[in-house]
Amino acid sequence: MEGPEADDALDQILDDSLWNLGVYDAHCHPTDTMDVVPEIPQRKIRTLTIMATKAEDQELVAQVARTYPDRVVPSFGWHPWYSYRLWDDMKPGASGVTVSKEEHYRSVLTGEPTQAFIETLPEPKPLSKFIAETRDYLEEFPSALVGEVGLDRAFRLPNPASLIGPDDKKLSPHKIQMDHQKRVLEEQMRLAGEMDRPASVHGVSAHGVLFDSFSSLFKGHEKVVRSKRTQKRGPHDFEGDEDSDEDTGPKPFPPRICLHSFSAPPDFIKTWLNPKIPARVYFSFSHAINVGYGYEKLAEILALVPEDRLLVESDLHIASIDMEQDLARIIHKVSRVRLWDPPETVRTVGKNWINFVYGETASKALGL
User: Fold this and answer.
1) DSSP string, 97-116
2) Superkingdom, according to UniProt (predicted)?
3) Which residues, 6 or more positions from 314, have their beta carbon under 8 angstroms from its beta carbon?
């Protein structure tokens, strides 16, 4: 829908009566444009879930969360695009071993980077140091998430400006080895499990390997799924099956997972909703990615996602009016596909956000 009709619909979504119901941005990056961060109190969005991605913005996210504690939920993590900057000193056999900057980048990047290219890259940071720093942030902010984390098979490192000639391309041929991305993701997910925090997860062109990575962490913790026969016999008759929902201490994975700007094929929804999975999985959608890039399967996917697992986000890098407009657009899209009126959509995704960030116990305490 375009033209005046679309503008009227957007105006309806932006009506104060709807914003007052509570609109939550499940994933955004306003610290990328710090000069606009002071506009956060002007935004009609009730809470921004702000992501960190690399060394430069972990403390920025913390600063914004300290400044606007009633409007921000911080999230601390290392994005897969920047995982090459981390040296994995936590893998088996790495204790006490040192590697040079050149050795590190040649081992984690594809395509044999040149010495000149490597010299433009920063000194790699030990993964153990980053995990320790993230633990400190999570302890400071009891409601903080782990994110943005994940896997990306499509990303290529940019060519440094100093190496770009008139005939060179902006993107280099170098990608980040998937095994290295998986290790960085794994250690962050183990930390999320240790701290009992949800995670916001990025996945691009790596949907199968992303699921397999989580499956390896879930192994041994899968939920017991009762057969239809035992279900008919009553809730207390398990024929000796153990209750896998018992609290047995920290798990090596987060209790709740948000697959942000979800763009996997529709079949992956069923895969991620397997009842044996011991984490609660949510699916978040943005106008910038899921609509802006013309993802043709969006309507089909929105129709398949369970009502209580649906989130919306802006995924924008600036805390401007654009955040409100993009959230309005994705709320309108969800409303059209699900045949909900906008207030129902706002209430539904708002309750889901509270469940994702704080857990269902907190949601029930609030009477939701």
Assistant:
1) ----HHHHHHHHBSS---HH
2) Eukaryota
3) 25, 27, 28, 286, 287, 288, 322, 323, 326, 327
> Among all chains, which residue has been given the structure tokens 């400190």?
136
What six digits make up the tokens of 340?
Answer: 């909900």
Whether this model's pTM surpasses 0.85: yes
Q: Output the CA torsion sign for 103, 55, 177, 256.
A: positive
Determine contact, residues 75/144, Cβ cutoff 8 Å.
yes
Domain boundaries, given as residue ranges, for the chain: 4-227+249-365
Tally the C-alpha atoms within 13 A of residue 187's C-alpha that lie toward its C-beta: 27
| Distance from the first to the final alpha carbon of the chain | 33
Give helix 127-140 / helix 58-67 axis angle, nearest 10°.
0
Instruction: List the one residue out of 142, 141, 101, 145 whose CA is nearest residue 121.
Output: 101
Measured over the CA atoms of residue 284, residue 208, residue 266 and residue 360, the dihedral's sign is: negative
At which residue do the structure tokens 């913790």 appear? 221
Render pLDDT for 294-338 as a digit per residue (tens, 0 to 9): 778 899 999 999 999 999 999 999 999 999 999 999 999 999 999
Tally of residues, the chain = 368
Identify the CATH class of 4-227+249-365. alpha beta
Burial label, 274 (beta-carbon count in 10 A; 0-12, 13-18, 19+): middle
Cα–Cα dist 291/293, whole Å: 5
CA distances, 278 to each of 137, 149, 236, 291 (Å)? 26, 19, 20, 31
Q: Which two tokens stand for residue 15?
A: 């009506």
For residue 11, with 0-12 CB atoms within 10 Å meaning exposed, 13-18 middle and 19 or more buried, which class applies?
exposed
pLDDT in tens, 256-293: 999 999 999 999 999 999 999 999 999 999 999 999 87
Strand ranges, E, within the chain:
24-28, 47-51, 72-76, 86-87, 125-126, 145-152, 199-204, 256-259, 280-286, 310-313
